[in-house]
Amino acid sequence: MANWFCNNEPVEHVSISDRAFQYGDGLFETIAIREHKPRLWEYHVQRLAKGCARLRISMPDEDDLLQNLHDALRQGRAATAYCMAKIIVSSGAGLRGYGRNVAAEPAVFFGVFEATRQPQEFYRDGVNIVLCKTHLATKSVTAGLKTLNRLEQVLARSELTDSGAFEGLTLDADGNVICGTMSNVFFVANNKIITPSLDDCGVEGVMRRHIMTTLSEHELAVDIGTLHSTDLQDVDEVFVANSQFGVMPVKSCGDLKWPVGGVTQKVMSILADNGVVECGL
Amino acid sequence: MANWFCNNEPVEHVSISDRAFQYGDGLFETIAIREHKPRLWEYHVQRLAKGCARLRISMPDEDDLLQNLHDALRQGRAATAYCMAKIIVSSGAGLRGYGRNVAAEPAVFFGVFEATRQPQEFYRDGVNIVLCKTHLATKSVTAGLKTLNRLEQVLARSELTDSGAFEGLTLDADGNVICGTMSNVFFVANNKIITPSLDDCGVEGVMRRHIMTTLSEHELAVDIGTLHSTDLQDVDEVFVANSQFGVMPVKSCGDLKWPVGGVTQKVMSILADNGVVECGL
């Protein structure tokens, strides 16, 4: 059984002329499959559509995407009750040079993988994170999007090797916290929940959006704010979130320590009731 | 005959797990082959080594690179007296997620293509360029490098479709001119030659380096400076440069017009005597 599919056929290779390989010219989504269904599907589709519009790539038909995803899950090498899927949209076959062949169709790839189940004590006791030295470039025209240009995350992630940390926070060049290498970050201070703006850099995670939407339905606001790394010592609670693991309390970042506080627990409880089963473990 | 080679074998495909495809995790060089030899080879190797160091990818052995390049030229689908070659260094086969498999070896690919010969009148009369709306993110940790994360150049280049322009200048978000989509740019003002700093974004072209080094040997300084797009109206001459076409005078950018001036002609003449045959056409 295969991991990757394109046009419903198993694929192990892509054309060396594919522009995703040559220039990172494309987008991707990493989707949690829960009870055989893609969680937060509409948010993934909407982010992908926004990315396609920004990158001027034709957005694949949404029904086709869902059908092909289910076909990949049926054929794929994973227990699909609880797994993860990845969709890659490349701008397609390339000419030499940055200019696209305007006649080229986007190529869409569907990957199916076993999910990584995080230990229960991570949700109960929190995880250790670090500050990454790799900073994010600012004022990016692809800010917020999940493009295939991910060198900053690769470099930031490589700092974690041997650290034992669950995640690393990336800052902009001015030292403001933006997001994790694979997650978004939330801070609790004076009972207010704050998450950094992603207008200039970073990725707008679908779980971040789900948290903000769901909490607002419970009359809990999440403010978009600026938080300098030196302000971390003044926050009361920290949690990180992504599409796969849901919400995870943070218990330390370097020398700073936090409890798994009441606000984080309340957020996890609300999320557990709203489709993020991991938060209820 | 093939265009692409890896380990001296023709290749048309790469593994879908290759991190260049998944994340743009790698570097490339585009090399002019002149009289069967790679022009400015040492500069290409030095930039690649700098990129490998910054990206923490093992730098391939320089002698192997040159040997494999010559093997690709011998086997490749191009008249190798005058063609172009592309070397792609990917961080290699991937795990899922941003973290690299530390045991993975870099994968190196060699492409051989016909050169694009620019019309003689471009060198004589100059070319038309435009200002791109796509701006470059600043304070990038990969500033100066030729990584496989090239979405900004792809988007900027796509603005040129139907414009008839030879090149587009990209600015940073503050409106400072940084470089072209596929070239570096030089301005002449009050008989001084200025080229933008690439410390925060942009690509340090090998031809830019060759120009600066060669001119300094002729006691002609090139200053690294800041030039806002609104200052373009005050410059006397403009030229662009890259590894393939050498130096090309610019005659217009939107409504602004410039002559092919004496400094540009002198630069072209010096370069023509220093291995850049295109400038002597």
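qc> Residues 18 and 48 of chain B are 19 Å apart (CA to CA).
qc> done
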